[in-house]
Amino acid sequence: MNVRYTTRQAGLTPELKAYCEKRLARLKSLLDGILDVNFILTVQKGRSKSEIHVQAKGRGFVVVEETLDMIESLNKAFDTLETRIRKDRSKLLERKRRGGRRALGPVVVTPEPENRVVRADFFSLKPMSLEEALVELDAKDKEVFLFRREGSRAWAAVYRRKDGQYGLVEP
């Protein structure tokens, strides 16, 4: 874990550093895998501002608090950070729990519908050419049209492809 202290317009006293280390030890028990912690302490016009940036595995937290006393602003920042970590942790646990629950009530088995054959009249009994079959396919606005080829007794089918072209199936 990398811990960095940055001070602006203020000095880093051993008391502040010891306080940060003490509170950081408590955070380690709440959040596993802390990689980086940045403390930015600023004093400006009598106000003390503390920023804490925590980077953990897969998560990052940033907390900014401003009061008249540096210890007080650090205390508020650590309290806010602990609250955020606990909330994030509970959300993660709840998400895992919800994934395990499937159904709350009794399982109702619905019978699968039987496959039925529906008769359709997408064919022509009279012999016709390929161009006539394409005209019929467009006129009936269907996906498939079955017809007899001119000059033979064989059946053929024309169909509309997904790319907008036409396909022909001949046995």
Give a brief rundown of this model.
The chain is an alpha/beta fold. It has helices spanning about 15-30, 70-100, 130-140, and strands spanning about 1-10, 35-45, 45-55, 60-65, 125-130, 145-150, 155-160, 165-170.
The proportion of residues forming helix, as a percent range, comes to: 25-40%
Q: Which stretches are low in confidence, meaning pLDDT under 50 for 5 or more residues running?
A: none
> What's the pLDDT, averaged over the residues?
84
Radius of gyration: 37 Å
Give an overview of the whole structure.
This protein folds into 2 domains: 2-96, Ribosome hibernation promotion factor-like (Double Stranded RNA Binding Domain), CATH 3.30.160.100; 123-169, SHC Adaptor Protein, CATH 3.30.505.50. It has 3 helices and 8 strands, in the order βαβββαβαβββ. The protein has helices at 14-30, 70-100, 130-140; strands at residues 2-8, 34-44, 47-56, 59-67, 123-128, 144-149, 155-160, 166-169. It is rod-shaped, with a radius of gyration of 37 Å. It has 171 residues and is of the alpha/beta class. The longest helix has 31 residues, at 70-100. The protein has a 4-stranded mixed sheet, covered by helices on one side. Strands 5-6-7-8 form a 4-stranded mixed sheet, with helices on one face.
